[in-house]
Amino acid sequence: MSSPDQETQAPESPLEEGKLFDYITGKSVKDTDKEKVRQRIARALIHEYGIAAEDIEPDFKLKVLGKNRKIDIAIFKPGLPHTEENLYRAVVVEKEPKIGTKGAYRMRDPEEARKEFELLEAVMAEVESCDYGLWTNGLEFFFFKKEITRFDTKFKPIGDWPLGDDTFSVEGHSMGRLRRAEPDMLRIAFRRCHNYIHGNEGMPKDAAFWQFLYLIFCKMYDEQQPNEARQFWVGAFEPFDPAGRERIRKRIKPLFEAVKKKYDSLFKGNEEITLSDRALAFIVSELARYDFGRTDVDAKGTAYQEIVGTNLRGDRGQYFTPRGAIRLVVQMLAPQEHERVLDSSCGTGGFLVETLNYMNKVFHDERHIKSGEEDTEEFVSIRDRLASYAANNLFGADFDPFLVRAAQMNVMMAGNSLGHLYHMNSLEFPRGDLPGVQPANDNIPLGSIDVLMTNPPFGSDIPVTERTILEQYELARRWERQGDGFVMTNAIKPAVSPEVLFIERCVKWLKPGGRTGIVLPDGILGNPGDEYIRYWILRHCWVLASIDLPVESFIVEANVNILTSLLFLKRKPDEVIQAEDLGQKQDYPVFMAVAEKVGFDRRGNTLYKRHPDGEEILRDVSVEEKVRIGGRLETRTLHRKERILDDDLPEIAQAYAAFRAQHPEPGK
């Protein structure tokens, strides 16, 4: 599926094996590790920095150090010929380094990496008009500004480039205006921050994660302040000077204190930012450039999930749900603005954030505008409406307090509100003594939820054995066959797999007519010994849909080899159950699908759609780019070709919508 800001035409010509399309020129180039980095940088230059594609040239040839050399990316003054005298900025690209076995890469400072810059500095020295340089390997980014004195030419490290053809003020709050993040670049920025803390500071991964989270909170809070009161900014040269780094700390420390006071339900008050001045300056510099409020919700969620996924994986069957499956569940349940949404095993908040992403698109569609193209009034209106939705209708619960906290940050970053996330055992609820139980009883008692979506912990190796929990559940009892059905006995089983109990809990949490989408292990829908569970489901619910997922769905993103299904149910009112018990049953159609491909193979390699002869299928896309020239923004249309992800899930979502258009939900 194309993204909302793309106009897609019919698939076009095939792409040769081992090739990809250059985003600058639209021509095919060899697919190498280095080229992948260059393409990410090219997209960022166009979409983040506002540099026109026609002012950029890959592999620009010029004579440097007595040899004919190629500059990986050359940027020229707006609208001028691509000649050496018009060269304004230069980028040298290397392939991304391998990450060590500990999962971290130690980030170098400019002095440690000095030998890497020989070509870049030579270009900047010999080309008079070339004022700015960038050297990157995809993980490390070294920006430079040329300074010429009477006696010397220096290449001073700076935290970032200015936007478009802007310049920066040394005394200014940043290198340029805040900008909407390109998804890949935000993901890499998050990785760089976490790598720096873990690899350079020597912190354990989990400690590094929370330090990073504190600064994300500071950034989000700072964006809500008036411009003149903002403190989350970095001067051009501050990260590279001890006094400058100290000034950054002096701004961030009181900001974090203000954050802890505002979100006192989330912070104990004794948390501290323990990073060194150098690490703090690095991370603030990475995050300060972006406008988190205007950055796409999905981009923020993807970047955040990548960091979370390497740090907070549980050991109680808590498998993080793949984003494609999450998106499918939300699209099929299609929550409405007035409906209360709950994830009873919320983990890091994937379903909740995707719900916010879905509602954000709904709000934009109602105004007939695209995300990122709003004027200030429209942006503030939609932002506040989304925050109100999160504050009133978004709920989550998890047994792991660290995951609850991580989910709160995820929801905050997506919706500008903490939502309502409770630290409690959803299977023990409404009982229990964890801190989230009482507020959850007040706000989301059983029978109060419109839409419930969840991926509960499952597995026979983590059975529920507590009798105080088991005695609450009909499915924890032994069932005996009676005629064509089953009858429940009073005998309680000594142990039950958690996913069985979660089915009942999810249904009982719904209002009559409420809808749920649950990730379940494949066996529960097919094992002969689980027939009584299916009987209970059919008695209490209408089955809306059942979708089988391939093993690739979880093996890459959750690192677990398991076949799963998505089960969609709608709770029947008691009067319908009673009528059906008396034989007044009505047949209804059920949507069923099997997903064979989810966009990647078992090793995590991205898969694209191909013609029968094996060549990749391409489509034409038109993307609006905002170019900054002379301090003004100009909108232009960029026409490019792109490959099509080989993913059945978006097509299943479309097929379900068509199915429902023909067959309304039962119970309506």
Automatic annotation (TrEMBL):
Domain Type I restriction enzyme R protein N-terminal: 34-148
InterPro entries, per the entry: DNA_methylase_A-5, HSDR_N, SAM-dependent_MTases_sf, Type-I_RE_MTase_Subunit
Domain DNA methylase adenine-specific: 300-575
Keywords assigned: Endonuclease, Hydrolase, Nuclease
Pfam families found in the cross-reference section: HSDR_N_2, N6_Mtase
Gene Ontology molecular function: DNA binding; endonuclease activity; N-methyltransferase activity
Leader peptide range in chain numbering: none
Protein family according to the UniProt entry: Belongs to the N(4)/N(6)-methyltransferase family.
NCBIfam families per the UniProt record, alphabetical: antiphage_MADS2
Protein name: Restriction endonuclease subunit M
